[in-house]
Design goal:
heterodimer, A: alpha/beta, 25% helix, globular, disordered N terminus, B: alpha+beta, OB fold (Dihydrolipoamide Acetyltransferase, E2P), 5-stranded mixed barrel, two-stranded antiparallel sheet, 2 helices, 8 strands, 19% helix, 36% strand
């Protein structure tokens, strides 16, 4: 957990705090709240003690941990605090965690902190904080739960497939397009839908009903909720996006306790929220340059990284770089023995015996439709004509990871299911969902060939407000809204997959789906496939959101949106709908009913039979 | 004959104007599609056309991207209208072929849904904006916007 970095930061802040006080007043001691605080071993609770929001306990109330899972423990106290007692189940927290807390003065509060602590035993943990302040005696509490379970049959490997934004309806669109129906029955279901275990997953973070991909991936990877734009941390009150208290994630726990390997595959940039949350701890997902350099700073770096996003790995002097320094992160990987793959051909040649860094575009990779189906679309591909697909990348990642006899954890993400729903391009989203399903099929076949040794989980991280309300057909001279067919008029769409590759030969069938959006900015709609993708909306002269005139140029009508026009919502946005989780393999029986998103983490560690108190990595 | 003589100064004047024209408006067009000769994940390859016009006055047509923070003397010019999505985008999610436009004189907000033309000195090379930390590769400096 980079304890040294934290220590350095603590020392820095302590020094900075001391300096600031020195400047403010010569009577430094009297005005330095942090140094004036006395630590008390026992919490004495006077009858007048008031529960106060001015005391913040991180991790928050109701947090759940795996036995031995490490985290940073921080309590924020009012600046006027003169005495504080922090106890856990009645015992001084510093004794429980065998660590002396660091007290640091921040501009708005005093921080009481211990890094890299863990509960060695399972059970309920009651945290009580009592602080003597100028406002009187204040208190705060939090209850944690520490668990450890073992599945009856242990999984050797875990593959977590994240369909970013893949709502149940987005999945159904892919099923309709890929499998079709006869006599009202689906000819087949998707590979992911054949899994024996299924659960509905709630997606909220601890700050808001609606989540983003960072917050959600954080829940899957750490078992702890976070806030929008954050991953692997609880949010403290300082502005620094890299100092928030961390929570240990799957990649860290399995590396140190069982020396397993792990890797990330995504069609987005590897520094984007979902893949980044496998390793990173930051309050701000936009810290992509930090995330890129942080991979190799891990106690055990990923064995395989295949995706887009090279712009965060290139030195500033290289055209296309988004770094603010001249660090050549690709070279750093090469120096550590990684093979570098810059395109599909390189990836095919790469040996599975060495770790691989594969970066195939500067940022998000192109979607299946533009990459494989419409190769004549150079305006979209912009020279990146040799990109691998999610199946190629998932396959190669497994080949590398399976070399570790201790097993592996792979996170494979279809990032553009989400990105294309944001731009209200359900056809591009659906083709990426079909490609995602084919990657899942590959993993299913892999596990079957290896004695069903792999827990495979497929889940979305949040939903989008799309719905299939019927079909759209311009027969009988109808166009636009009048050509939307509902109920019995809808009939069946006419997508054809003559070459049986799973993708309809024409994404713009005569009778296509009438896909409607529950939320949108003002936009032009003609219900048709757009050969060239365009954002639905942009901003007008006054900064208010308006429809993008470039979108849907043929026969489109202006649809008035349902999102606010003054908050910059130029895309369709995430919805708070539950998402579906599908699972197979050892430990998959854990998933059923309605579950909190943090349970994905616990289901994975349970399947692997992780002993969180073990540490096999030599430091 | 007399008419021609009478016309002579006008013809001369017109000819001089024609000569003078390239001196005052010597901007050449630069298209988004002509900026790069190729692209790999190890970097963009700048086109000869882009490099040969470096330091010269160019005119580009595109769209002003809605800034996340109102900024009047600094904006991003893109080939197509841009969206804003605070939760799915960071400044890193710009397309690779953006142009950053610096203006000498502050202008009031421009419509983001109508194409604009920008004329100014082309400046090619990696640069980090001192105020915002925004990284750019191609800039137009001292730009005039229409």
């Amino acid at each position: 957990m980079n304890g040294k970095q934290h220590l350095r930061k603590m020392v820095f802040f302590a020094l900075a705090g001391a300096l600031a006080i020195g400047i403010n007043t010569p009577a430094a001691q009297a005005n330095n709240p942090a140094s004036a605080v006395t630590l008390s071993a026992q919490a004495e609770l006077p009858a007048t003690a008031v529960t106060s929001k001015d005391i913040k306990v991180l991790p928050i109330n109701q947090a759940k941990f795996w036995q031995g899972q490490r985290f940073d423990f921080e309590v924020e106290l009012p600046l006027t605090t003169s005495q504080v007692a922090v106890t856990i189940n009645g015992e001084d927290a510093s004794k429980v965690f065998k660590q002396t807390p660091t007290l640091t003065q921040q501009s708005t509060h005093i921080s009481y902190r211990m890094n890299d602590v863990a509960f060695k035993e399972v059970g309920e943990k009651h945290v009580n904080v009592v602080a003597t302040t100028s406002q009187g005696t204040l208190k705060q509490s939090a209850k944690y739960n520490v668990v450890n379970e073992k599945a009856q049959k242990k999984a050797k490997n875990v593959i977590l497939f994240v369909g970013d934004g893949m709502s149940m309806q987005a999945k159904e669109v892919a099923r309709i397009l890929s499998k079709g129906l006869s006599d009202g029955k689906f000819n087949d279901v998707l590979a992911m839908e054949k899994m024996p275990h299924m659960a509905l997953v709630t997606t909220s973070g601890y700050d808001s009903l609606v989540t983003d991909s960072a917050n959600s991936a954080s829940a899957y990877n750490t078992g702890n909720k976070s806030v929008v734009n954050a991953m692997g941390v609880y949010e403290n009150s300082t502005p620094d996006p890299l100092d928030d208290p961390k929570v240990e994630n799957i990649s860290e726990i399995i590396s140190r306790s069982q020396d397993m390997s792990y890797g990330m595959v995504t069609t987005a940039a590897v520094t984007d929220a979902t893949p980044a949350a496998v390793t990173a701890h930051t309050r701000r997902r936009g810290e992509q340059n930090f995330i890129a350099t942080d991979f190799l700073n891990r106690a055990k770096p990923p064995a395989v990284i295949l995706d887009g996003g090279s712009q965060f790995f290139l030195p500033l002097s290289t055209p296309g770089s988004k770094r603010k320094d001249n660090v050549n992160v690709i070279q750093e990987f090469k120096d550590k023995g990684y093979q570098f793959a810059g395109n599909k051909t390189d990836l095919a040649k790469a040996s599975a015996d060495q770790p691989i860094l594969g970066l195939f575009t500067l940022n998000t990779m192109n979607v299946y439709m533009d990459r494989a189906f419409l190769p004549e679309n150079p305006a979209v591909l912009k020279g990146f004509n040799d990109q691998p697909g999610l199946v190629d990348m998932t396959k190669k990642a497994i080949e590398v990871l399976e070399k570790n006899p201790n097993g592996f954890f792979l996170m494979s993400e279809a990032g553009s299911i989400d990105k294309q729903l944001h731009t209200m391009d359900w056809q591009r989203s659906a083709y990426d969902t079909i490609e995602f399903d084919q990657a899942i099929k590959y993993a299913q076949d892999y596990s079957k060939a290896h004695g069903d040794n792999t827990l495979i989980i497929v889940v979305a991280d949040h939903a989008h407000g799309i719905s299939i309300t019927g079909t759209y057909s311009e027969q009988n001279g109808k166009v636009g809204r009048e050509a939307v067919r509902v109920y019995g008029e809808a009939g069946w769409p006419t997508f054809i997959d003559a070459n049986r590759d799973g993708f309809p030969d024409n994404p713009d069938a005569d009778v296509t789906l009438a896909v409607q959006y529950a939320n949108s900015p003002d936009h032009y709609e003609n219900y048709r496939f757009q050969t060239e993708p365009h954002n639905p909306a942009t901003a007008g002269k006054d900064g208010k959101v308006i429809a993008n005139p470039k979108r849907a140029p043929q026969g489109a009508r202006l649809v008035e949106g349902s999102l606010p026009t003054t908050t910059g919502e130029t895309s369709e946005v995430h919805s708070a709908d539950d998402v579906v989780l599908m699972a197979q393999g050892p430990g998959s029986e854990y998933f059923n009913g309605v579950m909190d998103n943090t349970e994905v983490f616990f289901g994975i560690l349970r399947a692997l039979g992780i002993d969180g108190n073990k540490d096999v990595i030599k430091k | 004959m007399q008419l021609k003589q009478w016309l002579r100064p006008f013809i001369l004047c017109f000819a001089l104007q024609l000569l003078a024209l390239p001196l005052t408006v010597q901007a050449s067009w630069l298209n988004f599609s002509d900026m790069y000769a190729g692209a790999t994940s190890e970097g963009l390859i700048l086109s000869d056309s882009l490099l040969s016009q470096n330091g010269q006055t160019v005119t580009m047509q595109g769209y002003m991207a809605p800034p996340l923070k109102p900024s009047i003397n600094f904006f991003v010019l893109t080939e197509t209208p841009m969206s804003i999505c605070p939760f799915c985008s960071t400044d890193a999610d710009w397309p690779s072929d953006i142009v950053v436009v610096y203006l000498d004189d502050a202008v009031t907000a421009l419509p983001y849904n109508q194409d604009i033309t920008v004329t100014g000195q082309l400046d090619v090379g990696s640069y980090v904006d001192g105020d915002t930390g925004f990284v750019s590769l191609v800039r137009i400096l001292g730009a005039e916007v229409n």
